[in-house]
Amino acid sequence: MKRTVKRAAVLYALVIFFLGGVVYLCVQFGMNGPTWATSKMNKHIYSNGTVVNAGTIYDYNGVALAESKNNKRVFPEGKTLRKAILHVVGDTSGVISTGTHNLYRDNLSGYSYVSGIHNLKRTNKGSDIKLNIDSEACKVAYEALGDYNGTALVYNYKTGQLMCSVSKPSYDVNNVPEDLRTNEKYEGVFLDKAVSGIYTPGSIMKLVTAVSAIENIPDIYSQTFECDGEYQTGDGVVQCNGEHGTITFQEALNQSCNCAFADISIQLGATKLLNTANSLGFNKRLKAKEIPLTMSRFNPSTSSKAELGWAGIGQSTTYINPTHYLALVGAIANGGIGYAPDRINSLGLIGDLTGRQTEVLVKMNPETANALKKMMRTVVTDKYGDDRFPDLQMCGKTGTAQIDGKVSNSVFAGFSQRSDLPLAVIVIAENAGWGSGVASNVANAVLQYFLENYVR
């Protein structure tokens, strides 16, 4: 009897062990099945490590940006267009890790938990993906950047749809340069600067400082500031880009006065300024839907007033990620809610087939957002002039980000107030000088494209 009980116990243990193994295998299959199926060892999808068979990637208007024909990946006609969309679409080897080809390879393969990639094996075609990206808008932005590297992004701040995303330098996937990995002019070419880059923001950071001032300095609108070209902090000097005399808070933003904003930063102190920045997404690991963003960093000095002043005007150790900052500007435009910029309109099989829900990336107090929106509108009307942005009802802020030993980066961030054109934009043109130059011109060029083609 005892021997029978022992045998039964062993049998039960084996059954439990077996069932546990089955459960473990099922869990691993559920978690890793798509990854296993889309491994580069799978010759139904890859040839020599590059994608040859997959679903078609379409832009917002139905233009095929990458498709499979005769066991080969085919890209659209037009060298400039292919360069402009490179980082959004991605290369076929997955070197551009944030490209659609790599991030959404499971979807493009048509993988199903029931049938695997059977449909792709049968037809050599996977599931299609539609982007929110307008490829022609990307081409306009790419051409407007000219010989300058950098990034340009546009999104609908009411819906979160990312409609333009460009990163330079780039290259033509149909004619890959032999010196792509060795020539300095291609440095950083595999990095999508829109999502993986970080930049010294320059004066567009004054928007964050302004948010903190509006919420923490009760008399900020009645204060005046003195600017004679430099601001003495007691332990250093903050240089200004002009001599603005006695100015108000609004005039300080209009003139982008470093003296005034250094004064405001010191009034706030490092803790309050840091708390505001953190509440707006700085120093956090953020995602734009599935796409991880390089972290925007803000760490104002607690020991040096001069460094605190420089941090508050967008220099020192302050860095922004372009996609994150686009959402921050979108929050100002959208009454305090900044949606995560989303490049995907719809996904095949894996994912949402009927559309995607918006996700909030940045939030701020609605009253603060509306106050800053009015200030940014005044910056355009009183400083730059509406003729710089015809028919856009533009709100904006330029930045001239100083880079040690190099020409400054040209930066612009802003949005259209038109109800029929709810678009926010950020442009960073590397080593292009004043923000009121190249970056502003690129922003206007791409928004004029949307005005002409999307507003009836």
Explain what the structure shows.
- Helix 8 (206-216) crosses helix 10 (258-279), helix 8 (206-216) crosses helix 13 and helix 10 packs across helix 11 (305-312).
- The chain is an alpha+beta fold.
- The chain is globular.
- It has 14 helices and 20 strands.
- Helices cover 38% and strands 19% of the residues.
Tell me how many strands there are.
20
* Major sheet details: 5 strands, mixed
Largest sheet strand order = 5-4-3-6-16
- Look at the helices and sheets and give the structural class: alpha+beta
Q: Can you give the mean pLDDT? A: 87
Count of runs of 4 or more consecutive helical residues: 14
Q: Using only CA atoms, what is the Rg?
A: 26 Å
As residue ranges, the low-confidence spans are 22-48, 111-118
What portion of residues belong to β-strands? 15-25%
